[in-house]
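Re-run with default settings, no changes from the original entry. Doing this only to confirm the output is reproducible before filing.
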Amino acid sequence: MENSENQDDQLPFVAPCHELSIGAPLRWLKLGFKDTQKAPLASLGYGLVMSCMIMAVTFMAWKFGSAWIMLSLLCGFVFIAPLACVGTYAISAQLERGLKVSLKRTLRACFKRYIGTELVFALVLLIIFLVWARASSAVSIFLPSSGDYTFAEMTGYLGFLALIAMIFLSITFAASVFSLPMIMHRDVDAITAVVTSVNAVMRNKAVMVFWGFLIATGLIVGVASAGLALVFFLPAVGHAVWHGYLETIDASAFPRHKVGITATARNTT
C-alpha cells in the first residue's frame, strides 16, 4: 500500500509533449483513413451511427426551430463528440497491437474499462457547457429593443454570440483533444489528462488551430453532403486523434492499465 502511494507521489503532474510541425494534422488524417481501411466494418459502422445522429439533430432544428438553434445544437454536440470517439481509439489500439478488431473488446473499452474516469471527464465538459449556455443567454441584452429588426441591427448580438461560442469551443477542444486518448492509453486521472491536453495545445497553438480548421471544414462538407461524407470522415478523425496523441504526448512515466487493450505495448515494428 505504501509503495503504491509513493509511486503515485512520484508521477508527474502533467505529461510532457513534443513540438509538432504544421503538417502533422495531415499526417494524422492519412493514418486515420488507413485505419478505416484496415477495419472498415467497425469504423464505417461508427461513422454511420454518428452521421445519422448529426443529421437528425440538423433536420429537427431546421424543421422545427431555426438555423441558430441548429448551430447551437451542433455546437453542443461538440461536447459529447470526444466521448463518442473512444470507440475509434479502441479500434486503432487493437490494430497497432496486431489484434483482430473485436466489437466486444471495443464496447468494453468504451463502457467498462475506463468508465469512472470518463464520467469525471464528462462532468468537466458538462460544467463548461452549462457556463457557455449561461453566457450565451446573457448576450440577449444586445438584442434590439424592437421586435422587428434588420440583420444590420443584429450584428452586435450575433458578433458577441459568435465570440462566446469560439471561446468555449476552444476551451472544450483544448481540454479534450488529447485527454481521452491518454485516459485510455495510461492509468491516469481525468484532471491530469485534461491538464496534459491543454498544455500540449498551448505549446502547439498553430498546429492545433490548423487541426481544428480541418475538423470544422470536414464537418461542414459532411453536413452539406447530407451526411454521406461524415460516414467516412468521422471515423478517420477519431483514428487520427489517437495517432496525434501518440505523436504529441509522452506518457511513458505513467503506468499501464492492468487489463484491457492498452495493457500491452503496441507493435512499433
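The chain is about 75% helix and 0% strand. Residues 1-7 have pLDDT under 50 and may be disordered.
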